[in-house]
Design goal:
Elements (H helix, E strand, L loop, with lengths): L8 E4 L6 H15 L3 E6 L5 H14 L3 E7 L2 H11 L3 E4 L8 E7 L8 H12 L14 E3 L3 H11 L3 H6 L3 E5 L9 H7 L3 E4 L21 H9 L4 E4 L8 E3 L5 E2 L1 H12 L5 E5 L4 H10 L2 E5 L3 H13 L6 E3 L5 E3 L3 E4 L1 H12 L4 H5 L6 E8 L3 H17 L3 E3 L4 E4 L3 E7 L5 E8 L2 H19 L1
Parallel strand pairs: 2-3, 2-4, 3-6, 7-8, 7-9, 12-13, 12-14
Antiparallel strand pairs: 1-5, 4-5, 9-10, 10-11, 14-15, 15-16, 17-21, 18-19, 19-20, 20-21
Helix pairs in contact: 1-2, 1-4, 5-7, 9-10, 14-15
The structure holds magnesium ion.
Magnesium ion (MG) binds next to loops.
C-alpha cells in the first residue's frame, strides 16, 4: 500500500497531510463503505478541527450523513462505531509529535480496518472513482453530544469497579494533553480512585510533553507519583489507545513488563496470546509458564487483529494480545486497544499487590539493538539470505513471518529490514545482557560478512 500504513495515514499537517488530501481519503472511504452514516472524531491536535471539517465535507459529498463526535479517544470512537453500526474516521496522529496529524479508519463493527479493506479504499482514492452525490442527496451533518460521557459509562461496565474502589487507590495520571484528558480523569474517579493529574488540559500544542508515552517524556509523572504518594502512575498517548505505567515508587515500568503482568493474570492452560515477531522474552516466559500458546504476527496492530479473528474462528480462546508499547487488546471486551481499559485492568491487579511487586518478575531483561546499513537491494538481499542460512543452521525455533526470528528458549534474536530506512535491524533479548549481546553480535557478524 502506498497511502495507508498498517494504522492509516500520517504526516506533517498542512504539508503532507493537507485538508484536500484528507477530503479525498474521506470521499474514498465513504464511497468504498457505501454507508448511509459515518462517525468522525479527533484527538486534541491544533490541526484536528480543520481536517475534520475537510473529512466531513468529503463524506457529505458522497452522500453519507456525518455524526461529528468532537474530541474522543480512538477506542471511544470504536465503541461508538460498534454501538451504532457505523464506520468511523478518526483524525489523529496517535503518539507522533504535535506538527503531525493522520487518519485512522474504523469499520462498522468498531474494529480497525483490515489491510484488505484499506487496499480497497486506497484503490478508490488513487483512481478517484468517488460516488459523488447529486446536490439534493448530499449527506446531513450533525454534532452528537455526550459521547465522552457515554464512553466512560461503557468502560465502567467492563471492569471490576468494586475491587478497585475497595482498594482506595491514588492514581497519578498524565494524559499528555491528548484526547484522554477529557475522559480518563473522570473514569478513574468513577472507579473510586483519588486522581491527581499532570498535562491533563487538552492542548494541541502539547506544551507539557510530547504525545509519545516513553520514559524520557514522562519525568513529571514519576515526580507526581512520589509527591502524591500515588499507588500507580498512568500515561496515555495522543489518542489514548495506549497506557504506560509507573510503580508506587515513581519508577517507570517497561511496557513489556506490564504486558507480561497482565498476560500472567489473564492466561490459562490452552489459551493463546497473540503478539508481533519482536515480542519480548518476558511474554515467551509467561506463555510457557501458563501452558498457553504464543502466536507471532508481522509487526503492526492490523496483523494482530487479523490473527485474533482467525484464531477466534478456529474456536481458540485469546484473552489478551498486543505489543510492548502499551497497546493491548482484551478481545473478550472489545477488539480494540484502549488505554483507559488497559489501565483499569492493571488497577484490578494493583488492588491486591503493589505495582512494583506485580512487575518485579518481568524486570531486568536485557534488550540489545544493532543496525546494519545497506547501499543496494542486492546488499540487503545478500544479508537476508545469510540471516536465513544462519537461522536454519542454528539450534533454535525459526519464525519467518516478518524477518528472521530465532527463539532459543531462554533468549531470541531477530533480523528484520526497516520499513522506512535502508537498514536491517537486529534485536536480541535475554535475561542476561551477555547472552543477548552474544546472540546479536553473532547475527551481526553473519550479516556484515554477507554484505562484504
Ligand atoms: Mg495511539
Amino acid at each position: 500500500m502506498e497511502v495507508f500504513g498498517s494504522s492509516g495515514t500520517r504526516g506533517v499537517a498542512n504539508e503532507e497531510l493537507t485538508p484536500a488530501f484528507v477530503m479525498r481519503v474521506a470521499k474514498a472511504a465513504g464511497t468504498a463503505w457505501g454507508a448511509e452514516r459515518v462517525a468522525i472524531a479527533r484527538d486534541t491536535r491544533h490541526t484536528g478541527r480543520m481536517l475534520v471539517d475537510a473529512a466531513t465535507s468529503g463524506l457529505a459529498s458522497v452522500g453519507a450523513d456525518v455524526d461529528r463526535l468532537g474530541i474522543l479517544p480512538t477506542p471511544g470512537v470504536q465503541a461508538y462505531a460498534e454501538r451504532e453500526g457505523v464506520p468511523a474516521i478518526v483524525v489523529t496522529a496517535s503518539h507522533n509529535p504535535p506538527q503531525y496529524n493522520g487518519v485512522k479508519l474504523v469499520g462498522a463493527d468498531g474494529v480497525e480496518l483490515s489491510v484488505a479493506d484499506l487496499e480497497g479504499i486506497e484503490a478508490t482514492l488513487l483512481d478517484e472513482s468517488f460516488a459523488d452525490a447529486p446536490w439534493n442527496e448530499i449527506g446531513r451533518v450533525r454534532d452528537v453530544d455526550g459521547v465522552r460521557r457515554w464512553y466512560v459509562a461503557d468502560l465502567l461496565a467492563g471492569v471490576d469497579r468494586e475491587r478497585i474502589a475497595d482498594a482506595d487507590l491514588t492514581v497519578a495520571l498524565d494524559p499528555g494533553h491528548g484526547a484522554g484528558s477529557l475522559t480518563s480523569p473522570e473514569f478513574f474517579r468513577s472507579l473510586g480512585c483519588r486522581v491527581v493529574t499532570v498535562n491533563a488540559q487538552p492542548d494541541g500544542h502539547f506544551p507539557g510533553r510530547d504525545p509519545e508515552p516513553v520514559a524520557e517524556n514522562l519525568g513529571e509523572l514519576g515526580r507526581l507519583v512520589r509527591a502524591a504518594e500515588a499507588d500507580v502512575g498512568i500515561a496515555h498517548d495522543g489518542d489514548a489507545d495506549r497506557a504506560i505505567f509507573f510503580d508506587e515508587n515513581g519508577e517507570y515500568v517497561e511496557g513489556d513488563a506490564t504486558f507480561a503482568a497482565l498476560a500472567a493474570a489473564e492466561l490459562g492452560a490452552g489459551d493463546t496470546i497473540v503478539s508481533a515477531v519482536n515480542v519480548s522474552q518476558r511474554i515467551v516466559d509467561v506463555a510457557t509458564e501458563a501452558g498457553a500458546e504464543l502466536e507471532l504476527t508481522p509487526i503492526g496492530s492490523t496483523n494482530i487483529i487479523t490473527r485474533i479473528r482467525e484464531l477466534d474462528a478456529d474456536g481458540r480462546r485469546v484473552p489478551i494480545a498486543g505489543e510492548g508499547n502499551g497497546g493491548i487488546f482484551f478481545p473478550d471486551y472489545r477488539l480494540a486497544r484502549d488505554g483507559a481499559f488497559t489501565a483499569a485492568r492493571f488497577l484490578e491487579l494493583v488492588a491486591d499487590a503493589p505495582a512494583s511487586e506485580l512487575v518485579a518478575p518481568y524486570d531486568g531483561y536485557a534488550n540489545v539493538r544493532r543496525n546494519l546499513e545497506y547501499g543496494s537491494t542486492a546488499e540487503r538481499d545478500a544479508m537476508l539470505d545469510a540471516a536465513a542460512n544462519h537461522a536454519h543452521a542454528a539450534d533454535a525455533e525459526l519464525n519467518t513471518r516478518d524477518g528472521y526470528r530465532l527463539d532459543y528458549g531462554d533468549a531470541w534474536v531477530l533480523a528484520r529490514p526497516s520499513g522506512t530506512e535502508p537498514l536491517v535491524r537486529i534485536y536480541a533479548e535475554a535475561r542476561e545482557r551477555e547472552r543477548a549481546e552474544t546472540l546479536a553480535e553473532e547475527l551481526y557478524d553473519v550479516l556484515a560478512n554477507a554484505k562484504a
